[in-house]
Amino acid sequence: MRLDEMTELYISYRQSLGEKFKTNAQALRHFIKYIGNDTNPDDLTIGQYESYLYYPTGKVTASWFIRHTALKGMFQWAMSRGIINGIPLPMDLPKRLGHMIPYIYSKTELKCLFTSAMEYQKNRSVIYPECLKMILQLTYFLGLRLHETMSLKIRDLNLPESYVYIRESKFYKSRIVTYDYKVGELICDFLKWREEHGMCTESESRLFLNRKGLEMQIDTVRGSFERIRKHAGISRSDKSPFQPRIHDLRHTFAVNRLTAWYKENKDVQKLLPVLSTYLGHKHLSHTSVYLTMTDGLLEEANKRFESYIKQGRNE
């Protein structure tokens, strides 16, 4: 059995159990592309697997462990069914990376990212810069996960009532995400641009398509974002081994929303569950991961605390 046949059979098996199996399926299909479709699994060496696990940086990243887990699961499944004779993966795992500290983009950096999305391409690409810019903008302005942004279809946009419908996201949960008139104008302008460029306008069409009329892939967007970020001149100045990610747009949204509530003198404790629901979290503790204590957030929290102390003294 060829590697691509074995892989697709395994993915179908996992999905038949009711699993979405998106991340691992993506990693396995990327492995096929990296190694070759018609490869015999028993002919592969540990060196070839290690080359893929460390691709493209040559370093241990979060992707290393995602890929290793995906491959190990498939090989265990294949070996139990007599498809392969052994599990050709390295047995000694590298040390896991430390906790990833989210990067909170400043307003200036956000503007630079959106501008760079239109400028970073040196040559004409199959990817529309306009689509990349809109992906970044919606991911930030609506606080979405990247896969939620990429999964949007025309039917999910409710322009009259100013909301998008996120269908069966993490843990198969769906939710409504509202937006203001400024975001509404961005969406309307983008839909007009899509129509002018002859993109499919049927309700089941993906919102983001490439020049070939095919839906854009998450890995492609992540790779493009790295080039956009570098073009914008954005990088970490601390000792963290991680560079700013596209997912940090969601972290930035959460922090900026909380900071705005402090400035507006809102009851933050009562509004935190609202933020949690908006982000699609099942538990409030999941939202706390997104609330990195930035200088701006700390300043607003201190102002609230000082006001509370003064009120106590005056009573």
Q: How many separate helices?
A: 13
Low-confidence stretches: none
Termini gap = 80 Å
Q: What is the CA-based Rg, rounded?
A: 22 Å
Quickly give the structural class: mainly alpha
Helix-strand topology string: HHHHHHHEEEHHHHHH
Portion in beta strands: under 5%
User: Mind summarizing the main beta sheet?
Assistant: 3 strands, antiparallel
Number of strands: 3
Q: Could you estimate the helical fraction of the residues in percent?
A: 40-55%
The 3D shape can be described as: globular
- Main sheet strand line-up: 1-2-3
Kindly report the average pLDDT value: 86
Short description:
By secondary structure, the chain is mainly α. The chain has helices at 3-16, 22-35, 46-53, 62-80, 107-116, 129-141, 146-150, 181-196, 218-231, 248-263, 268-279, 284-288, 295-314; strands at residues 157-158, 163-166, 175-178.
Task: Describe the structure in your own words.
The chain has a three-stranded antiparallel beta sheet. It contains 13 helices and three strands; from the N terminus they run αααααααβββαααααα. The longest helix has 20 residues, at 295-314. With 315 residues, the chain is mainly alpha-helical. α1 runs antiparallel to α2 (22-35), α5 runs antiparallel to α6 and α6 crosses α10 (248-263). A hairpin with a 4-residue loop joins β1 (157-158) and β2 (163-166). The relative contact order is 0.09. The radius of gyration is 22 Å and the shape is globular. The termini are far apart. The chain is 53% helix and 3% strand. The chain has helices at residues 3-16, 22-35, 46-53, 62-80, 107-116, 129-141, 146-150, 181-196, 218-231, 248-263, 268-279, 284-288, 295-314, and strands at residues 157-158, 163-166, 175-178.
